[in-house]
Every structure is written in C-alpha cells, then in structure tokens.
Amino acid sequence: MKKETNSTAKWIMNIGMVLVCLIVLFPMIMLLISSLRPSSELMRTGISLAFDWSLLNIDNYNYIFTQAGSYWTWYVNSLIISAVTIVLSLFFSAMVGYALAVYNFKGRNLFFTFVVFILMVPFEILMLPLFQMMITAQLVDSYIGVILPMIVAPIAVFFFRQYALGLPVQLMDAARIDGATEYGIYFKIMLPLMGPSLGAMAILQGLGSWNNFLWPLIVLRSNDMFTLPIGLATLLTPYGNNYDVLIAGSVMTIVPIIILFIFFQRYFVAGLTTGGVKG
C-alpha cells in the first residue's frame, strides 16, 4: 500500500513538473512561431495562435542573415561585452570573496558589511556618479565604459565568500608547509575547488550582462556600439516598427544563453546549493 502511494505521488509530481515546464516554455514557443510569421500577419492578428499556419516561413531569418547588417554589429558588441565581463568578474570577484572567507585581516568584517550594504542599494542610485566617472575618464561610448562598473559585482563577491567558507583550510596549511606561495595556493589548489561556484556565477553574470539594457543605454551613443537590447529597442519607433528583425532577432539572442547554460549546467546546481549552505 505504501509503495502504491509513493508511486502515485511520484506520478502527480511528474505531471505537475511537466505542466510547469509547459507554462515556462509557452512564451518561448509563441516567440519562435511568431518569428516565422510575416510582419503584416503580426500586425493584423498580433502574437496569438489565431492565424493562417500556411504562411509560416523563414523569410525573417533570411533577412537577418543577408540584409540586417546592424543586427550582427549589435550581436558582436554584446558577445564581446558579455564575454569580457564574465571573465573579469569571475576573476576579481572570486579573489575578493576568497580573501574575505579565508584570511583574517583588520577591517575584514567592515569590508564585508560594505559589500552587503551595496547589495541593498538600487543600481539606479549609483548610475549618476558612475556616469560622471565615465565622463571624467572619457570612457563614454566604449566597451570599457560598459564593462568597468561590472567587473567586481557585490552579489558575486558575496556568493564566492559564502562558498569559500566551506573550503578545507587544511589544504592551505599543507601547501604552506610544502613551500607554496599564497598565490600558488589560490590558483593551483583552492580555485579548482571553487569550480562549481565559478560555473554557477558564470551563468548568472552572463545572463545579467547579456540582458543588460539600462547601463549600456546610458553609456553608449553610436549605433555601431549598441548592444542587442538597445539595438532591438531602436526598431520600435513612433514612425514604424520593424517586426521582421525584432522578433526573429529576439529568438537569435537566446542562442548564446543556451550555449552558456549547456556548457556550465553541471556546475550550476552544485554551485548554488553548496554556496547556499556554507556559513
């Protein structure tokens, strides 16, 4: 009887998870279908299932690959900014979080308090002073101007600090006895142990950088420097909307995120769960 109850509960859970997956995937399915529809049909019926399915074609994608030159400029800009942001953010944030976790130095708790405090400050409050700094440093309308404020993310520092608290300090003591330097201990021993946290944060930082709209909108000025979110937004104007590129282009923006998640997925759950329970 108990076995039958467990089997029924398992089936109910599986059905519930399938329903949740369908609900989550439904907007993506609608977006994909809409990207195959002519813009005139979209203007007539909107994004819905009430349309002539015989009109589905890949003309919108043909247009993107053959005529939409600006779109691929935006795409490359987003790839460069996101890739550099991920690498630098992981590098510096992991070092800061690791130092806060394993070293006892004067002002450590105060520094960590500042990190937590910055987490509670909305980015909108920091935009004006950051923009003033970019103007002073003459970094407006440049990759560096977009990337620089994101190099050390407070959420990443907090996450790596929590994860590093669970690292075995005995390995550090053994390495010191063997004559290893502190940098050698970090890069050769401790950093590989932080692999799951690096994978999880790579996905989160990649998502944040790839979808970032507000800060690049403030810093970037020229069309050739626009990222994808800004470029796609320029297609919606009071004088006309280019749905051909907008919706098909939106589908194409999902591809790098899927690749990033596939590449780091085996670290994602492990990194989040382990980092969440270490105190």
TrEMBL record:
<feature type="transmembrane region" description="Helical">
    <location>
        <begin position="110"/>
        <end position="131"/>
    </location>
</feature>
<keyword id="KW-0472">Membrane</keyword>
<dbReference type="Pfam" id="PF00528">
    <property type="entry name" value="BPD_transp_1"/>
</dbReference>
<keyword id="KW-1133">Transmembrane helix</keyword>
<feature type="transmembrane region" description="Helical">
    <location>
        <begin position="12"/>
        <end position="33"/>
    </location>
</feature>
<keyword id="KW-1003">Cell membrane</keyword>
<keyword id="KW-0812">Transmembrane</keyword>
<feature type="transmembrane region" description="Helical">
    <location>
        <begin position="185"/>
        <end position="207"/>
    </location>
</feature>
<feature type="transmembrane region" description="Helical">
    <location>
        <begin position="243"/>
        <end position="264"/>
    </location>
</feature>
<feature type="transmembrane region" description="Helical">
    <location>
        <begin position="143"/>
        <end position="164"/>
    </location>
</feature>
<feature type="transmembrane region" description="Helical">
    <location>
        <begin position="79"/>
        <end position="103"/>
    </location>
</feature>
<keyword id="KW-0813">Transport</keyword>
<comment type="similarity">
    <text>Belongs to the binding-protein-dependent transport system permease family.</text>
</comment>
<dbReference type="GO" id="GO:0055085">
    <property type="term" value="P:transmembrane transport"/>
</dbReference>
<dbReference type="InterPro" id="IPR000515">
    <property type="entry name" value="MetI-like"/>
</dbReference>
<dbReference type="GO" id="GO:0005886">
    <property type="term" value="C:plasma membrane"/>
</dbReference>
<feature type="domain" description="ABC transmembrane type-1">
    <location>
        <begin position="75"/>
        <end position="264"/>
    </location>
</feature>
<protein>
    <submittedName>
        <fullName>L-arabinose ABC transporter membrane protein</fullName>
    </submittedName>
</protein>
<dbReference type="InterPro" id="IPR035906">
    <property type="entry name" value="MetI-like_sf"/>
</dbReference>
